[in-house]
């Protein structure tokens, strides 16, 4: 009887230990997701567990930076403006800069600290500056996520620190990566920063692929124990542009190694003209412009011509009786008309034969009392749009293709 009482707990303990040993790898892989998207067309090239909700960790800071860039665009912040550290911000856990209560940091420094050091105290500083409190800022982040089509993402803080309700998906993070580059092309270069100096100390980026894998130009890493090692990457080569997303790798080294393989495979597929997985696309909706269900312009889109060649193109467009409702190409979204004009002039100077392939417009879109000018080329088929975007990106300018659904709306607004 005594032996039985002794043996049974030991056996049960051994069984429990064995089950935990077997279940642990499965649990770890349940955090895993991977996605590779053609960054020009939005076509999905590789996908695994892309809609499963997971902890984004410091990938959250991509949305925090989206909100910072938006505040820069609407004039609420300026790059040289000073942000003051609150007691709550100073008390955030690592990783952080170690800001003291009352200490000031510029917006430019804050951006670089978020990109490289992934500083949690800085995330709270900018959240409080924009939203009044981090809680209100998180609500703003979630609303903006919905605007962009990130339907399975919820934010509860600006840093990605553990919160069981702060969840996202690989598909949503790809949408965000596409959107932040689309909406803020002038600020996207911050994600390529390899280091940042503050108080005389140099902080190096956690994104090891920047500068170490050809074509990578951002964007962000993330880690908490519950999520594993996460990464969102943007890369561009002659073959095209890719966005890759990884959730739940076991280490930084395995995360980087896997992303290298995914990108290399993706570029090979682009070089071979692969169309990707049938019927699968990842595109952000429009905050103010872009793909999908965008706000309908309140005013008829206005066309502007900064140079002689552009005048000729617009005259030809007005004289045309009809053009096919097809794919469009967006070459920029700007807060001022003059910036859109200058960008078009720069582009037509770099690619003078481009004007014969499409009709040009600068359209106004109003949302939340903000006026945005988006420069677009209309009337292309999918292949022409993709080829044109590759040519534009080869001269170091930004470009995104737009599917027929929105192109048709643009066409209706353009005619007449």
What form results from the Cα inertia axes? Answer: globular
CATH topology of the largest domain: Beta-lactamase
Proportion in helices:
40-55%
Rg estimate, integer Å: 24 Å
Strand order of the largest sheet: 2-1-9-8-7
Number of domains: 2
The major pleated sheet works out as: 5 strands, antiparallel
Order of helices and strands: HEEHEHEHHHHEEEEEHHEHEEHEH
CATH architecture of the largest domain: 3-Layer(aba) Sandwich
Poorly predicted runs are: 9-28, 288-325, 405-416
Mean pLDDT, to the nearest integer, reads: 81
Could you tell me the strand content as a percent range? 15-25%
**Derived structural class:** alpha+beta
Separation of termini?
95 Å
Labels describing this entry:
single chain, 416 residues, alpha+beta, Beta-lactamase, Alpha-Beta Plaits, 2 domains, 5-stranded antiparallel β-sheet, 4-stranded antiparallel β-sheet, 12 helices, 13 strands, 40% helix, 20% strand, globular, disordered C terminus
Task: Report what the structure shows.
This protein is of the alpha+beta class and 416 residues long. The protein has 12 helices and 13 strands. It folds into 2 domains: 242 residues, Beta-lactamase (3-Layer(aba) Sandwich), CATH 3.40.710; 107 residues, Sporulation related repeat (Alpha-Beta Plaits, 2-Layer Sandwich), CATH 3.30.70.1070. It has a 5-stranded antiparallel beta sheet, with helices on both faces. A 4-stranded antiparallel beta sheet has the order 11-12-10-13, sandwiched between helices. Strands 3-4 form a two-stranded antiparallel ribbon. A hairpin with a 2-residue loop joins strand 8 and strand 9. The chain starts with a helix and ends with a helix. The C terminus is likely disordered.
